[in-house]
Write a structure and sequence with these properties.
This protein is mostly helical. The protein contains 32 helices and no strands.
């Protein structure tokens, strides 16, 4: 999985061979093999390029990674190590396993090979952070005088450069381009201001505005434990359970496989929160079914990519960004999860409507009921939900700390996995889960550390206020212009960046802009988070779309464009809750207020989805499509008058379509 381990292991479990040619008929139903997906991921996704270890070295590294996961759980739950020791020790271990895992360049297929320069980095990089941990007391006592110590400054510089190199290997260049820009600006700012350049490594490595700050702190305390929990939960077989539930609920309806993709991706997203991992896991099952049903390859891959990307906004995990958001905004994690419910439902509802209309346009049928799992049989496996329910209950009740809740949920996952006869958890699977958790933590922690460095550059230079004042002055009283400019910034900055680091960057650079424009803190942070993650389906850097295209054997760019159209809710809903935070359960006057916004938002999404699809009861003329867009947007704007106008426009088109379809075909046509 993109933020927890190897997504290919999940894909290989479901699909390792293409559909035989004799089964394709007139419509191409062939799908990519695990090797096809792996090749695409290695080409576009840095995290999929790992070093090849075999034999004893592989076993030793696996055991060390498992021990690291145990250390993270023990440290965050039972120990109270001072932060100046805990954080550099954590990042040092991340660098150690990072350089053992990721080679310097793509395509290095040599087994058990580590060049001399990687060995140097393996020693020097982690060594810099271990030096800090051992000498933490001296660093605290010396304070600003650390800048006068050449040894400490050299070690700080080595630590920063090693982190940047590992980030290049496992995360990619986009986040480094952002970091490089802000670092260059910091150097320029210091030179222009006559400040010592030695202050830069001091601030970014030893100071309170750099690598070892809030993002890494939250990552080491909360996120890693939840990554490990997700790895254990996967091995209970819950992903298969979610897919079967989705098949039972929607498989027999028109275009059933696509609806199954939406529902199963939403359910799996509750656990993983990783768009690429979610795409590979559920897409290995749903994309072949969609193609067999009659969906175009580009559309099949796009449905899965768009739905899987929604996993990052699906509570309770939200790509682990929920914990960071709680820290930045200063509200309990449980509140963040609750506020995310309604926007997430609207997101998936928008995709569901789009796939239904596409199925009606193509005249697609569902899967025969006799081929689908029965809900009665699935209820016997409902115990697989116990770890997730326990987690939500413990966190919501505030009876345990977040990290303790995650640790207890890990224990529950092991127990539940031991009771599942179809996918029983074994000691080897426990080792695999611990290793997978550590492997997934590398990318997340590395990206969080670089995000902290970006935030540090912005803070020490005062660039944040300059950016905020510039956009505020440009937007003036037109707050919608400020939102659009912020949206574009988020999409660009979020390209190729993992969810947690993505949010760290947005929270530091873009959220303050919206707060300065007068929007509530919660709405501002949700707005930038939503537009940061849609980069996973927005070309040109659209990793989830690439993964879906690899399975569907479609064009990655066309798949990304189609996924963006399907995920139109992600581009509209944030504007709704920013102007009217009731959708986030802020300033609620009563349940009817929330109900009105929810219903009109769904109707608005229906109108826009129908306009983009061009079909209701029959093909829609372009003039009526414009009317649908206008009506849909009216219902997106808060206010009773706009809701009434929008509803009237959409219903008028629906009525006209229905009457026209009856005249053309005689018998009533149903949508």
């Amino acid at each position: 999985e993109k933020e927890r381990g190897d997504p290919m292991a999940l894909f290989k479990k479901h699909k390792t061979e293409p559909v035989p040619p004799e089964d394709t008929g007139a419509h191409d139903t062939s799908v990519g093999t695990a090797a096809d997906v792996e090749a695409v991921m290695k080409k576009y996704d840095r995290e999929s390029n790992t070093r090849l270890w075999e034999g004893t070295p592989k076993l030793e590294i696996r055991v060390l990674m498992a021990m690291f996961s145990l250390y993270c759980i023990i440290d965050t739950v039972f120990l109270s190590t001072r932060q100046e020791v805990r954080l550099p020790m954590f990042v040092g271990l991340i660098l150690l396993f990072g350089f053992l895992t990721f080679p310097a360049k793509k395509g290095d297929e040599r087994v058990n090979h580590m060049p001399w320069y990687d060995i140097v980095l393996l020693i020097a990089g982690p060594g810099a952070y271990f030096f800090y941990a051992v000498n933490a007391q001296n660093v605290v006592q010396m304070s600003a005088r650390v800048m006068q110590n050449d040894l400490y400054m050299i070690i700080g510089l080595i630590g920063i450069l090693a982190l940047v190199e590992l980030c290049r290997r496992c995360v990619g260049l986009p986040i480094l381009c952002v970091a490089g820009f802000f670092l260059a600006y910091t150097v320029f700012n210091f030179i222009r201001g006559g400040r010592l350049l030695a202050q830069i490594p001091h601030e970014l490595f030893y100071g309170e505005n750099g690598v070892l700050t809030t993002p890494v702190n939250v990552c080491s305390k909360y996120i890693v434990v939840f990554i490990i929990f997700g790895a254990f939960l996967e091995r209970t077989g819950i992903a298969d359970f979610f897919i079967n539930v989705a098949n039972s609920l929607a498989g027999s309806s028109a275009g059933g496989p696509a609806k199954v993709a939406v529902i199963s991706s939403a359910l799996c997203g509750m656990v993983s929160g990783s768009s690429v991992g979610n795409t590979v896991t559920t897409g290995s099952v749903t994309i072949p079914m969609m193609k067999r049903t009659g969906y175009d390859a580009n559309f099949a891959g796009a449905v899965e990519a768009a739905a899987s990307t929604g996993g990052q906004i699906m509570p309770p995990i939200m790509g682990a960004a929920a914990f960071l958001m709680a820290e930045y905004i200063g509200i309990p994690y449980a509140e963040v999860a609750v506020k995310a419910i309604l926007p997430a439902i609207l997101y998936f509802t928008g995709i569901f409507i789009a796939v239904h209309l596409e199925a009606k346009k193509l005249g697609l049928k569902g899967i025969p009921k006799e081929e689908l799992p029965h809900i009665g049989g699935l209820l016997k496996q409902a115990y697989l939900l116990i770890p997730l329910i326990l987690l939500v209950w413990l966190v919501s009740s505030n009876t345990r700390t977040i990290q303790t809740a995650a640790a207890l949920s890990i224990v529950a996952a092991i127990v539940v996995g031991a009771l599942n006869p179809q996918n029983r958890i074994t000691p080897m699977k426990v080792l695999e889960a611990l290793e997978s958790g550590a492997r997934g933590a590398i990318t997340v922690a590395c990206a969080c550390a670089v995000a902290g460095m970006i935030a540090g550059c912005i803070t020490v230079t005062g660039l944040a206020s300059t950016m905020i004042n510039g956009i505020v002055a440009l937007a003036g009283n037109a707050t919608i212009l400020g939102l659009v400019l912020t949206m574009l910034c988020c999409i660009v900055l979020g390209m190729g960046v993992p969810t947690t680091a993505n949010y760290c960057i947005m929270a530091s650079t873009c959220a303050p802009i919206l707060v300065q424009l007068g929007f509530p803190d919660v709405a501002a942070h949700f707005f930038v988070f939503y537009f940061g993650i849609v980069a996973d389906i927005t070309p040109p850097v659209a990793l989830a779309a690439y993964a879906g295209a690899a399975i569907a054997k479609s064009n990655p760019m066309k798949t990304g464009v189609t996924a963006t159209k399907l995920a139109i809710a992600a581009f509209i809903v944030p504007y709704i809750f920013t102007y009217n935070p009731v959708m986030l359960f802020e300033n609620v006057d009563g349940w009817w207020h929330v109900a009105q916004i929810s219903v009109t938002a769904v109707m608005g999404l229906f109108g826009i989805a129908a306009a983009l699809n061009g079909y209701l009861y029959r093909h829609i003329h372009w003039t009526l499509r414009l009317v649908l867009v206008a009506g849909g947007l009216c219902m997106m704007v808060p206010g009773t008058l706009t809701d009434v106008v929008g509803l009237a426009l959409v219903l008028a088109v629906v009525f006209y379509q229905r009457v026209s379809a009856r005249k053309d075909s005689g018998p009533a046509v149903t949508a």
